[in-house]
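User: I'm putting together notes for a lab meeting next week and I want to include a structural view of one of the chains we've been expressing. I don't have a solved structure, so I'd like a prediction I can at least talk through. The sequence is below, exactly as it appears in our construct file.
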Amino acid sequence: MSKWKRTVVGSVLAQKDDKKKFYIKFKQDVNIKAGDFINLESKQNQIDSIQKAFDEGKVSEDVLESALERIEKMPDFVKFDLVKLEKLD
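Assistant: Thanks for the context. Below is the predicted structure for the 89-residue chain, given as structure tokens.
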């Protein structure tokens, strides 16, 4: 079974003066090649994903709690996290 490295490289943010306009802010330098994917993960997507992983026994309760704490701290103007997944062999 392959393992994956999950890296949050940035966020999609709503503008302060017009909540219907969005922009991307990168948290770090990113090298993107043809064929790479950047996933958009909303707050609810992240909650559902970590809960599913816990229900399937893939993560411990400690990991679940720390992830939920981190996710709940996301401000409302952050619409999505930009997540790059890399397959580790």
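A couple of points you could mention at the meeting. Strands lie at 3-14, 22-26, 38-41, 78-88. The first helix runs from residue 43 to 55.

User: Perfect, that's what I needed.
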